[in-house]
Write a structure and sequence with these properties.
It is a single chain. The chain has 93 residues and is of the alpha+beta class. It is built from 3 helices and 2 strands, in the order βαβαα. The chain has a two-stranded parallel sheet.
């Protein structure tokens, strides 16, 4: 990601909360390189690519989007306070 004035990309590695990065496989707004970078830079982020969706995953594949969030929340709710998040993964339902 190219840094822009006021851009917070360089601070992604400071995120301590469990994080889910969701992207559509046909996203024309955020490049595959940039979405993978976000998932790689955020410590212990989970990464999901939803098939058949572009940039508006939550609208284009609402059921898959909700299912991924529910799956992530179940995982997070069972974590111990000092346990790292689940490893990054590609996929979908």
């Amino acid at each position: 990601m190219a840094a822009k004035p006021g851009d917070l990309a360089e601070r992604l590695s400071e995120i301590a909360a469990p994080t889910l990065v969701i992207s559509g496989d046909s996203d024309q707004v955020v490049s595959p390189k940039d979405r993978a970078r976000v998932a790689a830079v955020v410590p212990n982020a989970s990464f999901v690519i939803v098939a058949g969706a572009g940039h508006l995953v939550m609208e284009e594949q609402a059921d898959s989007f909700v299912a991924e969030i529910e799956r992530f929340l179940v995982t997070v709710s069972t974590m111990q306070p000092d346990e790292p998040n689940t490893p990054a993964r590609l996929g979908g339902p």
